[in-house]
């Protein structure tokens, strides 16, 4: 493996305008290999594509032997259909026009088995009516609220809803979905304890369902709780960020040996004061929902400290006698890669220190054709 300080550098960087998202396919392959080696059965993997939103990354995932996927938008689901992914869970409850779009998706890509989430009977009824009108049967998972308080039904109240949905003639209830994105402590023991506590009512619900003769498929977790759920038996795991990794997860979850595989490139465009420099990495090029010190770290200049950020500019404190010049290239590791990727229409691929091609971020759009 290349030395850590050397892996990201480009020999033909003058061919790329900045700001730019770059991806290192060989590192993506290694992250996928690490994922597949970390679980007892590849059929238990259902990675989320929200991080990359790219057909090329999907194809590498398929090549790694993974056949199940999760996504959050109709566009992401359609991208997976276009890639001939066998099994796709839309981890969202389609409401209003989105429900119509989901039914059209199922019709348009019959080679892919699509499913979606429900957590309310009215939404299930709408899906059932649309499926009936189209002569279809729609597969659904019951979405459980295990403490994130974003979507889902309390597991202790879910049995009745599960049975109600199962009675709808054009719905096929496959199982349960439980996303625990609120659990992200850096201490693995603490994270493990919270994960088990959150999953306990899900286990009780599974037992109740099995007592009625049902065998629910259970889809759980994201990247932070992946190693905990991977050690369970009989659940599918849905990590997403693992494929590109980022500064935030790399610092917080050191027990997971994934590698950064995507960066943002930026150039010094101004030297406004003797101790500061300005680069072209604004809000529109790197995720900015976190505090200023948790947006980007520069691999070839980790000493630089962000002090100001706006739409097209990032101002950095470099200190006296810093030596930076206008035009210098910086390699930025985003703190949060998923929304960063969504800011870029494409990622430039880097192989053997050379920019070689592009991966369109196709599913950053809200719609593809449906």
From TrEMBL:
Sequence similarity: Belongs to the DSD1 family.
Boundaries of every D-serine dehydratase-like domain copy: 261-351
Pfam family, one: Ala_racemase_N
InterPro entries found in the cross-reference section: Ala_racemase_N (IPR001608), D-amino_acid_metab_enzyme (IPR051466), D-ser_dehydrat-like_dom (IPR026956), D-ser_dehydrat-like_sf (IPR042208), PLP-binding_barrel (IPR029066)
A GO molecular function held by the record: D-serine ammonia-lyase activity
Signal peptide segment: none
Keywords: Lyase
Entries under CDD domains matching the protein: PLPDE_III_D-TA
Record bears the keyword Zinc: no
Protein name: D-TA family PLP-dependent enzyme
GO biological process, alphabetically ordered: D-serine catabolic process
